[in-house]
């Protein structure tokens, strides 16, 4: 594959990676360097034509991660305000994924050591939790409630301040 | 450009057991295996593709570090509310260390703050105290990480400080406006910025020392305005004071809750005669 897109790194080399389910992907070295794990592998000369095997990252999330790293590596230093804005928009759109993909990205970004993506996914998860009832959060994230009703009530009581809903000031009628 | 191939087959997830030796961390392995146990996965193994109704993801399977990071981004109230989700989430919340969020601007109207069994670091405590400008009461109980407590911050309104069972605590730096101190633990240095206006002190000292001697020789110079003093401690020997000690000139009420460790010896009123000398205006003396 030609290195036409490689306008960021000082090397024109493309790095090949292989997903857990055997799919091959390519990205510029500068993009791969955003992953701590890949960077170490490249430094140790482990990046060969066969590709670096990523045994726990499936093709679907890996395709996303390659996208993310390629975009971010191409626009890494000396950003103009417009470019920074564009990158922000890219991130916002990029992370608009279903919870399954979000989970895969959380695990994969943590495993591959892609700090920016890890932050993005963690923030997105926090945003999804925000403003929901515990029951809604259990449903969204597949959390099994293993408390007895008594235990649950006890926790609510202990953290009463957190469960209180601030009422709007009542008006005198 | 872009990925060489981007359309993975829908049903070919390889289970974690095929992982090669390329430096897979246990945590990811664990997550994947936990996922493998899920109902959906079994259905796919049997070659039946069923439309999923429940989410496949189980956020609880994520490594504690990631969950902890997620919680730390939530507003404090919402973060606390995650403790009711399940036992696992409760444990994550309870072991949360960075309770003071980034860009913490303080609780502007907070007057009373009590921390019980809280892993709060010296720095976080400092940030809390210096950012809650209207704090009048601060209670710190069983906070095992704390080694040095500083309440001496300018503009500090703190009047009542309560410290109990903080085993690692080695020093407390008091603030100027403090009027009441309750302290339970071993005898540790109380470093004041200068003479204090404090009027009420309650102390339960856990180590066996000549606590009374210490109190009556060291404290009058820093607590000249003390009016009420309660001391609960064990005494091994009769208290003796050097003759020219600085006195508690305002002390009106002294309450001693003493345990004598030597059985053969009974409390003798004369044991405390020297204390009366050190507090010439004493009105009430209670002995328990």
Automatic annotation (TrEMBL), chain A:
InterPro entries: SKP1, SKP1-like, SKP1-like_dim_sf, SKP1/BTB/POZ_sf, Skp1_comp_dimer, Skp1_comp_POZ
Source taxon at top rank: Eukaryota
Alphabetical keyword list: Ubl conjugation pathway
Pfam families: Skp1 (PF01466), Skp1_POZ (PF03931)
Domain SKP1 component POZ: 14-73
Pathway: Protein modification; protein ubiquitination
SKP1 component dimerisation domain: residues covered: 116-162
BP-aspect Gene Ontology terms: jasmonic acid mediated signaling pathway; protein ubiquitination; ubiquitin-dependent protein catabolic process
Oligomer and partners: Part of a SCF (SKP1-cullin-F-box) protein ligase complex.
Functional note: Involved in ubiquitination and subsequent proteasomal degradation of target proteins. Together with CUL1, RBX1 and a F-box protein, it forms a SCF E3 ubiquitin ligase complex. The functional specificity of this complex depends on the type of F-box protein. In the SCF complex, it serves as an adapter that links the F-box protein to CUL1.
PANTHER family for this protein: SKP1 (PTHR11165)
Record family assignment: Belongs to the SKP1 family.
This protein's name: SKP1-like protein
UniProtKB/TrEMBL annotation, chain B:
Entry-linked Pfam families: F-box, LRR_At1g61320_AtMIF1
Domain At1g61320/AtMIF1 LRR residues, every copy: 103-288
InterPro entries: At1g61320/At1g61330-like (IPR053772), F-box-like_dom_sf (IPR036047), F-box_AtFBL13-like (IPR053781), F-box_dom (IPR001810), LRR_At1g61320_AtMIF1 (IPR055357), LRR_dom_sf (IPR032675)
Top-level taxon: Eukaryota
Domain F-box: 59-98
PANTHER family on file: OS02G0105600 PROTEIN (PTHR34145), OS07G0161500 PROTEIN (PTHR34145:SF61)
Name recorded for this polypeptide: Uncharacterized protein
Origin species: Oryza meyeriana var. granulata
């Amino acid at each position: 594959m030609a290195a036409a897109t490689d306008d960021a790194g000082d090397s024109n080399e493309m790095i090949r990676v292989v997903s857990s389910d055997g799919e091959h992907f390519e990205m510029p070295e500068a993009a791969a360097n955003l992953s701590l794990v890949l960077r170490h592998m490249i430094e140790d000369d482990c990046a060969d034509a066969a590709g670096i095997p990523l045994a726990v990252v499936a093709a679907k999330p890996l395709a996303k991660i390659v996208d993310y790293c390629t975009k971010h590596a191409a626009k890494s230093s000396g950003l103009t305000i417009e470019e920074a804005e564009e990158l922000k928009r890219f991130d916002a759109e990029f992370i608009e994924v279903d919870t399954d993909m979000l989970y895969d990205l959380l695990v994969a970004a943590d495993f591959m050591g892609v700090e920016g993506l890890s932050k993005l996914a963690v923030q997105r998860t926090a945003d999804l939790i925000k403003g929901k009832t515990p029951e809604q959060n259990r449903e969204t994230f597949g959390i099994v409630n293993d408390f007895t009703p008594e235990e649950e009530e006890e926790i609510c009581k202990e953290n009463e301040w957190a469960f209180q809903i601030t009422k709007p000031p009542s008006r005198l009628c | 450009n872009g990925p060489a191939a981007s359309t993975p087959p829908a049903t070919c997830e390889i289970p974690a057991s095929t992982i090669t030796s390329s430096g897979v961390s246990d945590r990811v392995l664990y997550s994947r295996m936990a996922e493998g146990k899920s109902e959906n996965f079994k259905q796919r193994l049997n070659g039946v593709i069923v439309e999923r109704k429940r989410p496949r993801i189980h956020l609880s399977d994520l490594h504690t570090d990631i969950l902890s990071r997620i919680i730390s981004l939530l507003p404090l109230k919402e973060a606390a509310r995650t403790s009711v989700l399940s036992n696992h989430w409760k444990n994550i919340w309870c072991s949360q260390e960075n309770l003071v969020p980034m860009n913490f601007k303080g609780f502007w109207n907070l007057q009373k703050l009590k921390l019980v069994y809280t892993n709060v670091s010296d720095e976080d405590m400092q940030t809390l105290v210096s950012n809650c400008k209207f704090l009048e009461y601060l209670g710190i109980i069983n906070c095992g990480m704390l080694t040095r407590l500083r309440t001496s911050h300018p503009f500090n309104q703190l009047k009542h400080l309560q410290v109990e069972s903080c085993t690692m605590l080695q020093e407390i730096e008091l603030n100027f406006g403090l009027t009441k101190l309750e302290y339970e633990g071993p005898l540790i240095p109380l470093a004041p910025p200068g003479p204090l206006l404090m009027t009420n002190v309650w102390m339960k000292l856990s180590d066996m020392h000549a606590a009374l001697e210490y109190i009556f020789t060291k404290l009058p110079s820093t607590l000249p305005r003390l009016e009420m003093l309660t001391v609960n401690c064990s005494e091994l020997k009769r208290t003796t004071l050097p003759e020219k000690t600085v006195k508690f000139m305002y002390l009106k009420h002294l309450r001693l809750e003493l345990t004598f460790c030597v059985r053969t010896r009974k409390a003798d009123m004369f044991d405390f005669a020297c204390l009366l000398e050190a507090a010439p205006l004493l009105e009430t003396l209670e002995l328990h």
